[in-house]
Amino acid sequence: MQTAALIVAAGSGTRLGGDLPKQYLHLDGQPVLRRTVLAFLEHPRIDHVQVVIGAGQKDLYDKAIAGLDLPPPVIGGETRQQSVAAGLAALAGSAPAHVLIHDAARALIDHALITRVCDGLVSCSAVLPALPVVDSLSRVEGLQVSGTQDREGLVRAQTPQGFDFLAITAAHRKAAGQAMSDDVAVARAAGMVVQVVQGSEDNFKITVAEDLERAEFLVRQKGLSIMETRTGSGFDVHRFASDRALMLCGLQVPHTHGLAGHSDADVALHAITDAVLGAMAEGDIGDHFPPDDARWKGVSSDIFLRYAMSLLQLRGGRINSIDLTIICEAPKIKPYRQAMRHNVAAILSVPARRISIKATTTEQLGFTGRREGIAAQATATVELPREPDTFEA
């Protein structure tokens, strides 16, 4: 074997928010780890890809790389250095000539950078992709600047860092128990000469939420998105009932009448649920929650919308926007509209700026004009991973 890639994905950091380590969050419909792995799997000069994961992450890993031809993952240690050492030990049986060690969170690694590192290893035993430091550097003590730092000769280190396999394996054994900043530091401590090749501004490490947003933007800008936009519509009607509270968008709205229905009859959430289901071609709310099923009698309709959202997330999709129109003569919707927007946004776990809620009347025409009930219509725009078209007979 000539060249192996070792992907270090053992971190448990959740600085991006939520409960998932960043390497398992979705970037344009794919887990960050999957995008990183694919970059190496699809490169013609990479013969083998080995991933190192954290303890307790096997289920997340299996979902992230489902369908990819990879060896079983290696369980890493408490530090990155220990995780790399464990990965190198797992590769020893394959005896590659070279190894590229890469952070899983650098998901926008491109083939040109991988090639530059591989080319560097032809004449050197260690290669560092790096970028020049262009900003002025200052030393800070507390909140005060205590001095300046000459940036001449300084670079910003990236991965993948490439090495002669036997040499870096021996260097890691020698460095066991010592805290090193990265694999280049381990290599230099062992006396290895490190050559620098040009890095890439796009090859940044996804660490905070702003990094993920930047990565999403770059994927779309460069035409690398695997997502397609889908639109669904929903429409629902419920008549007034004098013995119920009026629920709209998950909020109780003061009024003389509520709405009749098997659940809490939240006509607004029903319309949004049907719109989200429709965008996925998943039928309507009645297909998933039959009105003759006693389990759904009187339940809060946010259950239905959360379910539709869970289906979308399972397919790697996301909400772009929801546009809802509530049609009634009374009650007046405007005083509650902002609270409704924020409540729908909370149910869907999206920013409120993606939720539009409007109200109108039918100029006293039809059943809503006669104040017999309320209607609602919704449009959901979502993004889903693009699938190949197949045609059924």
Structure notes:
The protein is α/β, with parallel strands linked by helices and 393 residues long. It has helices at 32-41, 58-64, 80-91, 111-120, 165-175, 183-189, 209-221, 267-279, 285-288, 302-314, 337-348, 366-369, and strands at 3-9, 26-27, 30-31, 48-53, 74-75, 98-103, 126-132, 137-141, 144-149, 155-157, 161-164, 195-198, 227-241, 246-248, 251-253, 258-259, 318-327, 355-360, 373-385. Strands 1, 4, 5, 6, 7, 10, 11 and 12 form an 8-stranded mixed sheet that branches. Strands 16-13-19-17-18 form a 5-stranded mixed sheet. The longest helix has 13 residues, at 209-221. It starts with a strand and ends in an 8-residue tail after the last strand. The mean pLDDT is 92.
Features of this protein?
393 residues; alpha/beta; Spore Coat Polysaccharide Biosynthesis Protein SpsA, Chain A; 2 domains; eight-stranded mixed beta sheet; 12 helices; 30% helix; 27% strand; elongated
